[in-house]
Amino acid sequence: MTEGVNVSAAGNQRGSLRLSDLQGRDDRGLVCRKCGCRHFYTIYTRAKPGCILRLKECRHCGQRMVTRERAG
């Protein structure tokens, strides 16, 4: 048993293990640029002509980003 060493799902040794390393390797969807997490809260939603703006916040580190979705 090795203590103090985290091993990612791919078998590489490194200092930390992200939740995204344990989940399926799916490149679709949002990824936090700060911590790599794929889980977000929607803080704010606003409908604009032709699109919907959403303010999202990472559940892990609190990093915020704005997304734009085309309506229709």
Task: Please provide a written account of the structure.
There is one protein chain. The chain has 1 helix and 5 strands; from the N terminus they run ββαβββ. The chain has 72 residues and is mostly beta strands. It has a single domain (6-70), classed as Single Sheet (N-terminal domain of TfIIb), CATH 2.20.25. The protein has a 3-stranded antiparallel β-sheet with strand order 3-4-5, with no helix packed on it. The N and C termini lie far apart (55 Å).
Keywords:
72 residues; three-stranded antiparallel beta sheet; mainly beta; two-stranded antiparallel ribbon; 1 helix; N-terminal domain of TfIIb; disordered N terminus
Brief write-up:
With 72 residues, the protein is mostly beta strands.
